[in-house]
Amino acid sequence: MIGYVLGVATLIISLILVANQRLSRKHFSGVFLGLILILGLIILMVKTQNFPVVTKKQIHAATDHLENNNDILQVVIEVEEKTIFCSIKVKHNSSEEEKEELGESCAKVLAKEVSKNSALTKPTANYLGELYNFYSLELMVGTDHEEDEIMFMRKNKDTKELVW
Fold it and tell me: How many CB atoms lie within 10 A of CB 158?
């Protein structure tokens, strides 16, 4: 924000100097292009600073936490570009509702891990966490029996809820 204010102030002062003929048009053009470059760099820095990075350590901590649940047999979490994939293998006798809850818990546990070291809002009972405002989410929940269907869930970063 300060960069914007300084840039606009410099531009206004430069225009006044040009109007009073104390700054040549050639120098004004240089000042103007310099301001555009500086503002562009500031915008780029602000955008990249706000994007949360999911580390291998956070993924490992979330995986360990989830695999301590007796209903979960295996968890694989991967991040590719701006999508988080979570695959869970659960016990054969898990109901559809339990599978949905376990899938959501994968998303929430990872979001909680990432929010520990950032200003992101943590997940709540009805909210997956701010992490998924930056990343799309794909959840797959299957069982240890090949005959059982695999449940797929998706949440785009632009939406608020999972779609099953």
Answer: 7
